[in-house]
Amino acid sequence: MCAAVAADGQPGIAVTDHGSLAASWKLQRAAENAGILPVFGVELYLAIEDGLKNARLRRATESKHQLPGDTGGDPAHKANEDSKGSTRYHHLTVLAETEAGWRNLLKVQNAAHDGDAFWSKPRADLTLLSEHAEGLIVLTGCLSGPIKSRLVAGDVDGADRALGELCDIVGRDQVYVEVMSHGIAEEDAVLPELVRLGKRHGLPFVATNDSHFTRPEDATIHEAWLCNGSPGTTLSTPGRWKFHGDGYWLKSAAEMRAMWDASPGTEEAVDNTLRVWERCTAERVIPEPHLRLPVFDPDGDAVSLLREKVREGAIARYGDPIPEQVRRRLNDEFKTIKAKGFADYFLIVADMIEWSRSQGYRVGPGRGSAAGSCVSYCLGIVSVDPIRFGLLFERFLAPDRVGMPDIDTDFENGARSKVIDYLVSRWGRDRVARIGTFGVSAAAGSLRAAGRVLDKATIGAKLAETVPMLGGGHTASIAELVDPKFAPGEPFR
Description:
By secondary structure, this protein is an alpha/beta fold. The chain has 17 helices and 8 strands.
């Protein structure tokens, strides 16, 4: 998408995934490679307001404004109803204008995932927005937004109040009335009243487009992808769920201007996309990457403490005096760890594992490249001797490596939540985060999935079998250590 935008001469692109900021990091890299500047945002799931604060903490609904023949223009609409068919949430597009706005987006999203706020989806509310409004730009959203959904239902007064509330919360200068067209009759039907509301509140209009794929010809592939997410559904399934309307590709500037430049009241809507982009790229929104680790001992020196713990562990593992080969290995590793500023990291991980064992919880011996660290072995983080088995420290942590080392630790199933509770009590609830990974449809799996949705499952499976299996692996050996001259100041003698 970034490459297509750059080829069209556009200076940037915004990504506003539903209820997630996770794509922002990949967007930043892709945009840099394409020579454009990205805008970071999210399409919030906004809890249905009932006049009280913290609406996200209650399970309120309102009558659903059903689009004819479908549940809306994107997958997020599919689950947006309870058993009675009422709407559980609205959609609201929010962009980070500044670094403060980016931090506030993170806070809003974290709160939306927390406790009772998560109901079907991670829900935010107007209370959250008011508490974290600095640096945010709000667009009024799609047909499932708090403004258009009420216009579809004929509730003009309710739409007017909702628009006024947004202006009060984030400031009138931070709100844009969002117009879009995907071949859905309701979008065209509410447009005149939407324009009147925007003008009544003195707000600018901005033209956006839901882009779920890059080129018009990708529409069929996208339909196949939706089928793949619905078990038992193929492209030939009667009445299968699909997008309502069309126009969900990444439109060119010319295509957007053809839709909006001559539309009454929205003549500046496309120009305003550039103005929003300029506002959101005037300063770096996502800060430069930096280490975000707690200080293990605020009253002590992490490097000295780590050195002492490693020395004690080395004596326990290898005996006293520490063998020369071990001493050299520890000195080399420690030099890199100290230079990279990871002393606190090793102490934090070692503390977690030490506590777990003290509680009688079973801890794995260590997996992956971390087993190549003699420091980790002496701290009890791993139980595999890297010197005995010829494992390379450089596969785990090298001086020129960017980013933190990765220590994979296994706990018995029943202990996992207890370990997390300990980390929360040790470092603070707002200092512990869970991470996730994205599933990727690789070659063989993609062939099988394509076969299923095309009603050719047997052919797909046979084609998948032709994909070469990756891996097989190889064993790396470590050269004989050369005895260097003893350097003054080396910690392990």
